[in-house]
Each structure stands twice: as C-alpha cells, then as structure tokens.
Amino acid sequence: MSLEDKLHTDMVAALKARESDLVTTLRMAIGALKNEKVAGKQARELSEAEEVAVLQREVRTRKDSAQAYTDGNRPELAAKELAEAEILARYLPSMLSDAELDAVVAEEVAAAEASAGEKPTMRQMGAIIKAVNGRVAGRAEGAAVAAKVKAALA
C-alpha cells in the first residue's frame, strides 16, 4: 500500500468519524501528492522516497507557517498549523537519532578516506553529504547531516 493509498483510507475513516480537522489535513496532503505527480511535462507515479519528500516538505511548510503566525501574534492560527504538522508527521518514517546519524557519517567519512588514501578535506564535504543523504533517505534533516559531516571533517 502506497503512502497516498494510506492517506486516502485514513481520510475516508476520518470522514466517517466526522473529524473535520483530520479530513482537511489529509485532503491537503493528498492534493500535494497529486500535484507532484502531474508536475513536469508528463504525469508519472511517485516512488516511496518521493512521496516521503513531499510530505516532509508539507510538514516543513506547516512549521514555517506556525512560526510566522507566532511572530505575527496569531497563536490560534499557529496552533492549527502545528496540529496539521503533527498529523502529517505520523505518516513519515521515524527520524534517525543523533548517535545513528553520527555512525552513518563516520562510516561515509571512513569510506571516503579509504578511497582517497588520506583523511578527506572540506573539498570532499559535498560528496560525503550526498552519500550520507543517499543512505538516510529522508530520515534526517539536510542541515543536520551537513553539520555532522562538517564537524567530522574539522
């Protein structure tokens, strides 16, 4: 069952239970997935990783909006956005802990060191970040990965 199918079945259940906030949030998520499917020159099916990336983008958008509402002294709208982010976060894979991310970064730095024959420098940082992002596949924030790699190379 794809992520979109799971969202759809949960939306139907929420409709039957008359949970309007949940229905609204799931409809927006399904709409975002459908928009991503038809973006570009030709409609296509999304992979699991692409679906997760779309949902992560939606969660990030909700959190950014909540911050803007908080800054604008609109706590009721901020609470609504955070509730939507919480609902969408249920459908995302669990995030890696700091220790797990450190282990992946250490393995990739060691692999880069083995292939180059010397300790990698900051010039190889981009390649190492790309390798780590390929392995963690949406289970860690890009900024956190970059910070860990930079610390490992320093």
Report on this model:
With 154 residues, the protein is mainly alpha-helical. It folds into 2 domains: 3-89, Hypothetical Protein Yqey, Chain: A, domain1, CATH 1.10.1510; 98-153. The chain has helices at 3-16, 20-38, 48-71, 75-89, 98-116, 125-136, 142-153. α2 crosses α3 and α6 crosses α7. The longest helix is centred in the middle third of the chain and has 24 residues, at 48-71. The N and C termini lie far apart (43 Å). It holds the Pfam family YqeY. This is GatB/YqeY domain-containing protein. One of its GO terms (molecular function) is carbon-nitrogen ligase activity, with glutamine as amido-N-donor. InterPro entries: Asn/Gln_tRNA_amidoTrase-B-like, GatB_Yqey_C_2, YqeY/Aim41, YqeY/Aim41_N.
How would you summarize what this structure contains?
This protein is mainly alpha-helical.
List its salient traits.
YqeY/Aim41_N; single chain; 2 domains; Hypothetical Protein Yqey, Chain: A, domain1; mainly alpha; GatB/YqeY domain-containing protein; 0% strand; 154 residues
